[in-house]
């Protein structure tokens, strides 16, 4: 959701800015733009729609671009005002000498806009960002010092922001500042960059300074000076990242989503390697050991959104099953707007791939204010959410580029399974059962590989199912959240309506929708108490002419007769089945969307990091 890039150096910066924006486009956007200082003038180029339109615009104007070595760029996901050229960033002030890009939301922009209009500001857009451009310009008029102008202006802002500002009078610098929205500086040789996320700068450098809230950085080609809210210079740590370029490259796959689906077996292998030495040893979890304190924890809550929430629901089932400890799971956006029961004896676990999801960040802040212990499970241990954490468990999936989460879900799930086993080991419970589970965990990567090797069957099935407009997914037990996740994948990338229900709920309403136009996909786990019940539910659906799809490892003879399609997965115990059953659902969603020609990696209206509530 929105992305920022900035460059100061010796190279012509238009290409660097455009390629920085290109690496951020996975976050979701609907317009893009850059501003450069060239021939003593601030020049701005903007476009609506795909970033290619901006590339084309800059290419068409190249005779007017001489030697810009300072610039800022932005991709915008519309919040205030439609995705139009006027609303696209960078924004500027009346005289056009200042340019600004912004991520986040300025909550008091209406009041500021009224004040500034009275002072003569002429607004060209509907955005909150343009208010900041005029505000800084107004402050600059009196101080004639850009840094002081930014310091004064940001003191008047309420809300979340990361900002990059440049001015014609200071053609060798960018000013970068943030509050509740991420911003980092990439430190290079005779060049420095600013970015809202690592991919924006990784083509130039892997040395990073993470800005803290209210830091204001003056970034020049040969140095970066960061000051805090009081204006004092602060020494920032330069962190060297080991981001693999492979994460940002499709490596021959048609889409990032399918590439990331295929990375899943190795992600599980790596997670097991680090924490599961052998089936006789206890799970290694220093991040949880470090959470132990004199304070008694008597309730555990998991809070997350979307796919991460589904991982949390599965964790509830397995932890309660193995340990008997009650786990509450709640969507972050619900948790934060009610009088929930979190207190100083709570452990609140926030799960977030990006670590930038606004609702989950707010949830962690509120939980922390109530004295709870906070454990964060994230793919981005460098993200904003981690500052509320007493402990962070990185899931190590590598950068996930496709908007639809796949490999990060796998990585979250495996960590949560290991966490459940760890809790059980602390309780000294079910030792023999745990050994069996650990043994079976080691077989999961090859079982997923088996499913991936048979992808063409699912691809064929996807073709013949792609004309349906609605799907129902049903399951019982641990796989209910798998069904929810499968349905979410299908709707977000193919725009086909898919809803998941506990199979037992069908009769309580949804069955009314069933007819030959409503396929029902059922997850059936053999040798489980729910298997026959699932068969009955499917028979009820068949009686209403619904097309039936089974996802199962069962060879039960009733299946061939009952189901129109059967997706077979390798045998797996019920408790571990969510670690493999979601894979065919990811593939099914992918192949349907691909067959329909949808923009798989960047579905409409969606953003990779949902940084607004
Ligand atoms: C779905 C998807 C979203 C995210 C949700 C939470 O494929 O990606 O539902 O899971 O926006 O994001 P994180 O995990 O970054 O907090």
Describe this structure in words.
With 613 residues, this protein is an alpha/beta fold. The protein is 35% helix and 22% strand. It has 19 helices and 24 strands. It has an eight-stranded antiparallel β-sheet with strand order 3-2-4-1-10-9-11-14, covered by helices on one side. It has a six-stranded antiparallel β-sheet with strand order 5-6-7-8-12-13. Strand 7 and strand 8 (173-179) form a beta hairpin. Helix 7 (264-275) runs antiparallel to helix 14, helix 15 (455-465) crosses helix 19 (578-595) and helix 16 (480-494) runs parallel beside helix 19. The N and C termini lie close together (12 Å). 54% of the residues are buried. The model has no long low-confidence stretch (mean pLDDT 93). The protein binds fructose -6-phosphate. Fructose -6-phosphate is lined by residues 305-308, 352-354, 357, 360, 404-405, 488, 492, 609-610. Fructose -6-phosphate (F6R) binds at residues 305-308, 352-354, 357, 360, 404-405, 488, 492, 609-610.
- How much is the average pLDDT? 93
In DSSP terms (H or I, runs of 4 or more residues), the helix count works out at 19
Largest sheet, strands/sense/barrel: 8 strands, antiparallel
Q: What is the helix content?
A: 25-40%
Low-confidence stretches: none
Overall number of strands = 24
The value of Rg in angstroms is 26 Å
The global form is globular
- Report the structural category: alpha/beta
């Amino acid at each position: 959701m929105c992305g920022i890039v900035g460059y100061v150096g010796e190279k012509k910066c238009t290409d660097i800015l455009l390629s920085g924006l290109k690496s951020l486009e996975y976050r979701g956007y609907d317009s893009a733009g850059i501003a450069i200082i060239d021939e003593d003038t601030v020049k701005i180029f903007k476009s609506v729609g795909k970033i290619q339109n901006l590339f084309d615009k800059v290419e068409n104007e190249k005779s007017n671009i001489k030697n810009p070595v300072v610039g800022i760029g932005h991709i915008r996901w519309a919040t205030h005002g439609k995705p139009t050229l006027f609303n696209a960033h960078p924004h500027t002030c009346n005289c056009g000498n200042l340019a600004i890009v912004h991520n986040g939301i300025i909550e008091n922009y209406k009041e500021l806009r009224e004040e500034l209009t009275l002072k003569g500001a002429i607004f060209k857009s509907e955005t909150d960002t343009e208010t900041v451009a005029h505000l800084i310009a107004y402050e600059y008029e009196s101080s004639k010092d850009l840094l002081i102008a930014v310091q004064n202006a940001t003191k008047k802002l309420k809300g979340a922001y990361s900002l990059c500002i440049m001015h014609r009078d200071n053609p060798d610098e960018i000013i970068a500042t943030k509050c509740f929205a991420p911003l980092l500086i990439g430190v290079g040789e005779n060049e420095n960059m600013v970015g809202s996320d690592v991919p924006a700068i990784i083509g130039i450098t892997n040395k990073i300074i993470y800005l803290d809230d209210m830091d204001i950085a003056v970034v020049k080609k040969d140095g970066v000076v960061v000051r805090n809210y009081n204006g004092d210079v602060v020494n920032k740590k330069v962190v060297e990242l080991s981001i693999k370029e492979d994460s940002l490259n499709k490596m021959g796959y048609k889409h990032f989503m399918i590439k990331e689906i295929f990375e899943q077996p190795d992600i599980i292998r790596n997670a097991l390697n680090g924490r599961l030495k052998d089936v006789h040893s206890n799970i290694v979890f220093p991040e949880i050991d470090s959470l132990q304190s004199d304070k008694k924890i008597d309730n555990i809550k998991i809070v997350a959104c979307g796919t991460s929430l589904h991982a949390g629901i599965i964790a509830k089932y397995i932890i309660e099953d193995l340990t008997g400890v009650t786990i509450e799971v709640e969507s972050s956006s619900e948790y934060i707007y009610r009088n929930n029961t979190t207190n100083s004896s709570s452990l609140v676990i926030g799960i977030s791939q990006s670590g930038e999801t606004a609702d989950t960040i707010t949830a962690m802040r509120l939980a922390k204010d109530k004295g709870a212990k906070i454990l964060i499970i994230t793919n981005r241990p460098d993200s904003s959410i981690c500052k509320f954490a007493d402990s962070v468990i990185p899931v190590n999936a590598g950068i996930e580029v496709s908007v639809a989460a796949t490999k990060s879900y796998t990585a979250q799930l495996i960590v949560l399974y290991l966490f459940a086993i760890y809790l059980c080991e602390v309780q000294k419970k079910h030792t023999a059962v745990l050994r069996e589970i650990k043994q079976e965990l080691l077989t999961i990567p090859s079982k997923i590989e088996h499913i991936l090797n048979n992808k063409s069957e699912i691809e064929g099935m996807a073709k013949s199912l792609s004309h349906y407009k609605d799907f129902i997914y049903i399951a019982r037990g641990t796989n209910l959240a798998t069904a929810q996740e499968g349905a979410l994948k299908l709707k977000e990338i193919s725009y086909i309506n898919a809803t998941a229900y506990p199979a037992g709920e069908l009769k309580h309403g949804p069955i009314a929708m069933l007819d030959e136009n409503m396929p029902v996909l059922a997850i059936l786990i053999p040798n489980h108490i729910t298997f026959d019940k699932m068969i009955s539910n499917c028979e009820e659906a068949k009686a209403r002419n619904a097309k039936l799809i089974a996802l199962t490892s069962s060879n039960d003879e009733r299946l061939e007769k009952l189901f129109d399609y059967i997706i077979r997965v390798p045998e797996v115990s019920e408790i571990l089945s969510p670690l493999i059953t979601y894979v065919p659902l990811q593939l099914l969603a992918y192949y349907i969307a691909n067959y329909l020609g949808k923009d798989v990696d960047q579905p409409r209206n969606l953003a990779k990091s949902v940084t607004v509530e």
